[in-house]
Amino acid sequence: MSDIVRITDLQKSYKGGFQALKGVSLNIREGEILALLGPNGAGKTTLISTVCGITTPTSGSVSVGGHDIITDYRAARQMIGLVPQEINLEPFERVINTVRFSRGLFGKPSDDKAIEKVLRQLSLWDKKDSQIRELSGGMKRRVLIAKALAHDPRVLFLDEPTAGVDVELRKDMWEVVAGLKADGVTIILTTHYIEEAEAIADRVGVIASGELMLVEDKDTLMARMGQKELEVQLTEKISEIPESLRSDALRLSEDGGALIYTYDTKSERTGITSLLSKVAAAGLVLRDVVTRQSSLEEIFVTLVKEDAA
Amino acid sequence: MNWMAVLSIFRFEMARFFRTIAQSFLAPVISTSLYFVVFGAAIGSRIQEVEGVSYAAFIVPGLIMLTVITQAISNASFGIYFPKFIGTFFELLSAPISFIEIVIGYVGAAAIKALIIGAIILCTAFFFVDFTIEHPIAMVAFLVLTTISFALFGFILGIWAGNFEQLQIVPLLIVTPLVFLGGSFYSINMLPPVWQTISMFNPVVYLISGFRWAFFGTADVPILTSLLAIGLFTAACLGVIWWIFRTGWRIRQ
Known about the structure:
Number of domains of chain A: 2
Strand order of the largest sheet of chain A: 6-7-8-3-9-10
Number of helices of chain B: 10
Distance between the termini of chain A: 32 Å
Oligomer: heterodimer
Mean pLDDT of chain B: 90
Mean pLDDT of chain A: 89
């Protein structure tokens, strides 16, 4: 697959010295879904805004479909659709008119068939004559997507499309994204939900403090991220793990009061059952059992540490 | 040029105008009619002719200017401020359009709306007063130039405004007094010499004077001076807008 978006050493500093992007380089492949994961304030939105022309870069370059976003901005922006994080829509406007407006703004002649296709694709056709203010939150988000798609972009940026959206709507949104991918649209979405990246992305990039920590195929990354810990708390402290239990996945807590077992949630056998029976066989008495999954923050910390090492 | 985008902005803005038809259309007609009734009929009947024209007719150009200037400013400033306020401005920034197209779209729509209202007031005036227009082409040209220049000014205002209060404050505190004191309801020659001199610093005097010349052939200041004044004002507004888009002031981070 060829690269449709090339971001080279992109830097953005705001007045007052805050550096939102510290030299991000990233190539996005045509037709893929790339999820950009990162905590709030990591620079995800700044990155998207810069590529889309809303924010002016301090230095570095971006090209979309071979067109530079500054010197050849018309051709570059023609290829891009942007769905912002906030639901920004004129409340009194009708759905179909606002989508028509977006198409015209991108220089495309009015085409009722094309508008109908987009509205149907997003299940908005029935609502085409409704005023925006009459729509539910999920519908409004769909209208934003319809607007972004009205000019048939090749690359679609979705900035946190499922922030504050309930589970059902989130799944709905994922289906929409999958449908767009099937149409050959390259999709870049930002999120801070690991499950979201897991559900739909081909590749995952991790951004923290304005830096791109890594970009990896989802499967590789998920294998690293999908680890879970089982803490087996004991009634009596032990000084070392009994011989029969020793394995790479098991370690003793610092105070000796618990055994910590690391396992992969996605593997067919987690090994928990056999661990627990071995624990019982070794004569250890359980006080409690706790499981925990590394939070995104913890994963970032791990990634940053690995990066530095 | 992305003319399709210009047309889209224009249509979108005009749609807002027709959606709020009572507010954008009836309000100026009613308020102007009130001016005609109060100043033209009630007070005007006690005032002799001004510069050879009946007082009721004398105030027609001033009233049209008053409304057209206020409308051009409020339409353009609201038109560009509203997307900033509700956050849809990002769409303009991320679209393949240049600032020239944005300005033509918004300012063009605001100017046309003001012109429509101006034309309606002129028609309304014919119901109340008897008058003829001596230089109709110059009248139209003056009206068009004025609406465009003040729509440009309104556009700057809308970009500058950070809230609705700021959006209202300049028209309320600066523009309305300037227009009222610009000879809408009187001839500058009726003022004492000191106030005549002070009035010469009011740019609106030149506009209303020039516009009145187009109606009745008489003016407070030479017509060329009027043209020069409005030309300079337009150029200044264009200069400021060019600077705004070049630097991204209040638009792009």
